[in-house]
Amino acid sequence: MPIAIEDLISRVRGHRCYNHPIFDHWAEVRPESVVVGALFHQIRSFCDATRPGGKFPQALAMHKFSEESALLQEIIESEENHGPELATMAGYIVNRAAGHVVFGDLYDQELVERGLKEFSDQLLKSLPGYDPRTGLLAQTRRARAVFDGRQQADRESTLRNLGTALALEMVSNRHLIPGEKTALVDAGIYDASLEDGEMHYLLEHWGEIGAEQQHEKNAIAAVGSVLNEDTEALVLEGLDGFLDALVALWDVLDSALLASGRPATELASV
Predict the structure, then answer these.
(1) Are 234 and 159 in contact, with CB atoms under 8 Å apart?
(2) N or C: which end of the chain has fewer CB within 10 A?
(3) What is the Cα–Cα distance from 111 to 87, expressed in whole angstroms?
(4) What span, in angstroms and rounded, lies between the C-alpha atoms of 181 and 187?
(5) Dist. CA 76–CA 189, nearest whole Å
(6) Taking a C-beta distance cutoff of 8 angstroms, is the pair 32, 257 a contact?
(7) H helix intervals, 99-137
(8) Angle formed by the axes of helices 138-145 and 33-50, to 10°?
């Protein structure tokens, strides 16, 4: 008997990634501005990899998943141009954490992202596998690499990509965006509000009318409609691959930057 979409939803919700405490720790630790910058460099770089559709929507249509293609294309179009807004929010929070102007022009994406990388280099470059060119941890590169499959159009890759899309949208809507709201707004550390123009990225993604809510619905509908005994193994492979890669990234960031307890050097080899 094939697995049902409800089973996949439960699988995502039961994964350690879905309830990872990294954002709660962020709110509790109240990290210095350099730590905030390093966190944002890794998180922003991961998020950048999740937006491009590559060949994914076209591959779905090619394999006779036309309705699913339209649902995923809607998500991809919704995420376009969010990179600059995320950089602006990151720079804004770094400035608030520092108590003075670190980034003078929050809308200069290149300036902000270069500064975030410098913070990351300062704090994380000694960890095994750190890439000095990109400023990315090995775990960040692995989490990004999950989305390389969107450059493939074969049926197997396309089904894996569907599983990844489901896990991504559920985690984004129920963990990542709420977690950012907890750490950046609700904790009161930065005196930041969703109504602040510089926080538009979070405002647009948050809540019942936010982008992530619709993205999750689209992903559930797309995966649920193709799930059967023939497709479930590949869908599960894509789903689990994403969750395992992201939880490894959260673990090392939590340990290295938010003092969660487990040695970062130990996590770096996971």
Answers:
(1) yes
(2) N
(3) 9
(4) 8
(5) 32
(6) no
(7) 109-124
(8) 20
Average pLDDT over residues 169-194: 95
Please report where in the chains the tokens 């520092």 appear, as a residue.
Answer: 98
Residue 59: CA atoms inside 13 Å, Cβ hemisphere, count? 18
> Structure tokens of 159?
């089904």
Read off the tokens for 122.
């300062």
Task: State which amino acid sits at residue 252.
Answer: V
Query: Cβ contacts of residue 209 below 8 Å, gap of 6+?
Result: none
Place of tokens 């109240």: 30
Report DSSP letters for 227-248, one per residue.
-STTTHHHHHHHHHHHHHHHHH
So what's the pLDDT on residue 56? 95
Q: What tokens appear for 27 in the block?
A: 């709110």
User: Residue with structure tokens 């929010």?
Assistant: 89
pLDDT tens per residue across span 205-214: 886 556 677 8
Whether this model's pTM surpasses 0.85: yes
Distance of CA 97 to the CA centre of its chain: 22
pLDDT digits (tens, 9 = 90+) for 211-237: 677 889 999 999 999 999 999 999 999
Nearest to 257 by CA among 67, 30, 80, 77: 30
Structure tokens of 112?
A: 């902000």
